[in-house]
Amino acid sequence: MKLLAVFPDPESARPAIQALADVEHEVYSAEPLHPPHVSSNLLGATVLGGLLGGLGGGVLAVFTFKTMHLETGGMAIVTYPPTGIVIFAVAALSAIGTALATLLWEGDMLHFRPSLPADIRMEIANGAVAVSAPEESRDVLERAGARIRSL
Amino acid sequence: MSAAAPSVETLSSSRVTEDLLRPIVETTWRFWAAISVLGTIMAWAMFCWGYQIVEGLGVTGYNRTSMWGSYETNFVFWVGISHAGTLISAILRVTGASWRRPITRAAEAITVFALMIGPMFVMIHLGRVWLFYWVIPFPNLRDLWPNFRSPLLWDFTCINSYLLGSITYLYLPMIPDIAAVRDAAGTRLAPWRRWIYRLLAMGWEGTPRQWALLERAISIMCVIIMPLAVSVHTVVSWVFSMTMNPMWHSTIFGPYFVVGAIFSGIAAVLVALFVIRKLLNLEAYIRPEHFDKLGLLLITFCLLWGYFTFAEHLTVWYNKEVSETAVLLGRLSGPMAPLFWTMITCCLLIPLPLLILKRTPFGTLVASLSVLVGMWLERYIIVVGTLTRPRMQFVWHSYTPSWVELSIMAGSFAYFAFLYLMFAKFFPIVSIWEFKEGQRQ
Fold first, then answer.
1. Residue A21's pLDDT is what?
2. Quick check: B231 and A43 CB within 8 A?
3. Contacts of B211 in chain A (CB under 8 A)
4. For an engineered disulfide with B157, which of A89, B53, B247, B311 has Cβ 3.0 to 4.6 Å away?
5. Does B230 touch chain A (CB under 8 A)?
6. Which among B139, B154, B216 has the least Cβ separation from residue A68?
7. Nearest neighbour of A9 by CB, restricted to B13, B207, B210
8. What whole-number distance in Å separates Cα of residue B337 and Cα of residue B377?
9. Distance (Å, rounded) from C-alpha A93 to C-alpha A101?
């Protein structure tokens, strides 16, 4: 069984969170407390998204040039400056889209049902910090002054 | 700041949440009054646009040489305003300016709404607006020619990327605050609004992993959005400078337009901050120091803009090329002179002394309004000044916007204010979590 400990503010929650370092737990807060080092593919995915987007933009421009049979008076069918602008804009847009999608995926945000009860969520929005931890952490949490309830 | 405004340190977490969610849960008579006034202006503008669609572009002041006029002026002006938020916010985030926290969202929202309005003028000018999708570049079998060599098409690409990027950039830092609205104000809201907030908050719960990922994503977005913002107004300037028209064909038009865009953008942010601070009683959050620091930025761009304007006109005056000089004289002492000197007064002579002496909220408001008027005139002078004096003198013409154009322009300002007001009504206009984070630091 899991416990849900509610602290009135981030300062009072901090010692308990540190004490739970070796125990599997989860923290819920309305402001960033101590962003840990999180391994993530966000940067790599964004770069990859940008490259693929740029490639797509280039293909769109070149394909259009080739298929429209433009009369160019002997000049090159594919002109580089406009193609570069299209590549840049589509690459940026694709990178942005990929960053958003990766954030939602890696942050486990692709659902619309919060796991915490509504009254706890309201307290968190008003500054409280909630910590979910296993039953054996009860002593640590009580000593830290948390209000505890079972999940 | 009013004397009653408490200091940042004394505001409790729950008080901050309550204060910043109040405009969302409470609707005052002032809100309905503002909506009514803005709605009336928008309805009139819609009627005028309908009239133009039925009667054709003949109801405007456009003529054979001035095939561009107020609609293009407004297009360039609004795209310029859009540089306010995203660019300023991204620069301040990247440089770690902690004072930015209460103002970034108000600025980012300006970008999104200005970018929605600017390109609208291109559609208004099309005449047959229902065929607007013909400007979209894609290979097709209808013998339409998506001309990738046209700067107008580059505009389409860059502006759309910037708009979608700016919406994402506005949305990302808003996710925790939308979750706060969902959780703290949920029971006080109508079911349909609760449903929207639940949808927009996604599965946000504020775990350390989510916070870390969010902050990383915002940092990445800042880096991507800055060159995109610069590219947008550079491309807008190329619509003019890639042509051979006098006083358009200039190598410095790109940076000149970007500087002018940021200049007018900062002014727009200051006006918006002043209004929402008063209307939503946010004196404790948007403080005199924000006006002071943004005022300093405005001085910087005021001087930069003045330098570019001087450089642009000096080179034209010095080389004495006949058609360029004709346009220049049209500005300095010809038909455009009253507008040109008003522009110089509004962009330099009024704001500089006001901002250098003391940057109070009211002083920066006056300076910013003056800059906005001046920058609109600058766009008008660039567009109309050249087209009324083309290279062949026998087709010199004059141009005056008609009542239809002026009405639609008024409608665009009302539409912008309407969108901004609705945004402030549905979302916290000051970032709650960033403000609290700043308090702790």
1. 83
2. no
3. 29, 32-33, 35
4. A89
5. no
6. B139
7. B13
8. 11
9. 12
Q: Residue with structure tokens 């006080």?
A: B188
- The answer to whether A87 contacts chain B (CB < 8 Å) is no
pLDDT in tens, B377-397: 999 999 999 999 988 888 888
- Mean residue pLDDT of chain A comes to 87
Q: How far is A136 from chain B (nearest CA, A)?
A: 21
- Report pLDDT digits (tens) over B66-112: 889 999 999 999 999 998 788 888 888 888 888 888 899 999 999 99
B221: chain A residues, CB-CB within 8 Å: 96, 99
Which range, A69-78, B7-16, B391-400, is most confident?
B391-400
Q: Give the burial string for B342-352 (b: 16+ CB within 10 Å, else e).
A: ebeebbbebbb
Q: Cβ distance B162 to B112 under 8 Å? A: no
Domain spans of chain A, in order of start: 2-31+127-150, 42-106
Q: What mean pLDDT do residues B297-310 have?
A: 96
CA gap B330, B356 in Å, rounded: 32
* B282 touches B276 (CB < 8 A): yes
ipTM of the complex: 0.92
Buried b / exposed e along B111-145 (16+ C-beta atoms within 10 A) = bbbbbbbbbbbbbbbbeeeeeeeebebeeeeeebe
Per the prediction, chain B carries an average pLDDT of: 90
B142 contacts chain A (CB < 8 A): no
Cβ distance A70 to A77 under 8 Å? yes
Nearest to B377 by CA among B356, B401, B353: B401
For chain B, the residue count is: 441
What is the enclosing helix (H) or strand (E) of A31? none
* Cβ pair A114:B205 closer than 8 A: yes
- Residue A145: which region, alpha, beta or left (left: phi > 0; alpha: psi -120 to 50)? left
Q: Give the three-state DSSP class for A150.
A: strand
Distance from CA of B110 to the nearest CA of A (A): 19
For residues A26 and A71, the answer to whether their CB atoms sit within 8 Å is no
Buried b (16+ CB within 10 A) or exposed e, B69-85: bbbbbbbbbbbbbbbbb
Judge whether B355 and B367 are in contact, CB under 8 Å: yes
With an 8 Å Cβ cutoff, is A96 touching chain B?
yes
- Looking only at the bridges linking them, the beta strands covering A26-28 and A147-150 are unpaired
Cross-strand pairs, A134: A2
- Select the CATH number that applies to the domain covering A2-31+127-150 from these four: 3.90.180.10, 3.30.70.790, 3.40.120.10, 1.10.286.20: 3.30.70.790
